[in-house]
Structure formats: structure tokens, C-alpha cells
Specification:
- It is built from 3 helices and no strands.
- The protein is an all-alpha fold.
- The chain has one domain.
- The chain starts with a helix and ends in a 10-residue tail after the last helix.
Length: 75
């Protein structure tokens, strides 16, 4: 089931073309959001000490300005 789900998400991403009017969205299930909720704070902690200033600035800007971007929903 995991591989089938990842294949679906990959297909949606790869089928997207820049000329399309809207970026497709994926409805993630409770378990997928739970994994993201667990990993995102750990990733941010690693980024703070290992990523460049521009990456950390971009993450901060995205969290502040993109609805749903954060530890509780998968962007």
C-alpha cells in the first residue's frame, strides 16, 4: 500500500506542468500527517544548524505566509 501511495503522489507531481492554472493538491491521511508532524520539527532543528541562511529564511517566510505550511499539514 505504501508503494502504491508514493507512486500516486509522484505521478501527480510529475504530471504537473508549469503552464497549468493550479497546482494539484493531495489529500493526506491521518497517518501521513502524523509522520510529517513528527518529522517536521526535527527537520527544522537540523536545518537551523546545517542549512544556509537563505534556506532558513525561506522556510520561515513560507511558514508565515503560506496557509497550511507547517508541522500540522503537509505542504
Amino acid at each position: 500500500m505504501y508503494r502504491k501511495r508514493r507512486d500516486y503522489i509522484s505521478k501527480v507531481a510529475l504530471d504537473y506542468k508549469f503552464a497549468h492554472a493550479a497546482i494539484p493538491t493531495i489529500e493526506y491521511n491521518k497517518d501521513e500527517v502524523g509522520v510529517w508532524n513528527y518529522c517536521y520539527p526535527k527537520l527544522k532543528k537540523l536545518l537551523a544548524t546545517n542549512a544556509c541562511e537563505e534556506t532558513n529564511w525561506t522556510i520561515k517566510e513560507m511558514e508565515e505566509n503560506i496557509e497550511g505550511f507547517g508541522p500540522n499539514s503537509i505542504p
